[in-house]
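4.2 Preliminary Data

To establish feasibility before requesting continued support, the project team ran the inverse folding procedure on a target of 221 residues. The structure was first converted into the token representation described in Section 3, and no sequence information of any kind was made available to the design step. The complete token record follows.
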């Protein structure tokens, strides 16, 4: 996981497939509580339609940093969608304006400390660094060796951004990420299917019998 972007991406994809992409919540149990519907102020299909990209909470500079960070965690590749493709930024932005509003100061302070660290060690903001330098910074956060962090700590910032990137990739699209089921297609998850046959339940292969179904489609039914 720590060697390069490909291994980090593979780790997150395996984690998603191993945990099972839950149709109505984020993948990581500790962070999923805020993604359960209906949570007061949580992202809804209506707010999703009004806020594509960012603008519900994140300002432009912070949005650019979050988008770049998430893309290094889950980079796109030919035939494999990444964080940008899946709309992870939109998911995080809507969550911070609603269900994760208690993390707004965490993000403000964490992203400010991240840019201070990048300027001190690499003479530029995170978004201004080369991809290889961004990966080095992420590894330093993950290892807890990045200096100048008080609250949140470097490790806490990394863990939160990784968790929210996974949620934005693999939670139901009704929460603003997983655009066009990009994450579910990546791991072969069929979504909120109303009926599974006994053969489906026993199969170890990716589900391909029917279109992927999300919560919004079921709500309309």
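Position-by-position output of the design step:
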């Amino acid at each position: 996981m720590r060697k390069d972007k490909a291994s980090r991406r593979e780790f997150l994809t395996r984690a998603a497939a191993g945990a099972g992409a839950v149709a109505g919540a984020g993948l990581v149990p500790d962070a999923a509580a805020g993604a359960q519907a209906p949570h007061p102020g949580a992202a809804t299909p209506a707010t999703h339609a009004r806020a594509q990209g960012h603008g519900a909470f994140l300002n432009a500079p912070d949005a650019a940093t979050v988008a770049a960070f998430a893309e290094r965690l889950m980079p796109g590749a030919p035939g494999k969608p990444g964080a940008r493709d899946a709309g992870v930024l939109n998911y995080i932005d809507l969550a911070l304006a609603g269900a994760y509003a208690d993390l707004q100061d965490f993000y403000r302070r964490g992203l400010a400390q991240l840019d201070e660290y990048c300027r001190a060690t690499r003479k530029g903001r995170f978004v201004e660094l080369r991809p290889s330098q961004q990966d080095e910074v992420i590894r330093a956060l993950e290892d807890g060796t990045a200096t100048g962090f008080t609250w949140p700590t470097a490790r806490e910032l990394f863990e939160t951004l990784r968790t929210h990137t996974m949620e934005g990739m693999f939670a139901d699209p009704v929460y603003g990420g997983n655009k066009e089921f990009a994450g579910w297609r990546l791991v072969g998850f069929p979504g909120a299917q109303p009926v599974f046959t006994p053969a489906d339940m026993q199969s170890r292969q990716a589900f391909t019998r029917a279109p992927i179904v999300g919560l919004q489609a079921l709500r309309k039914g």
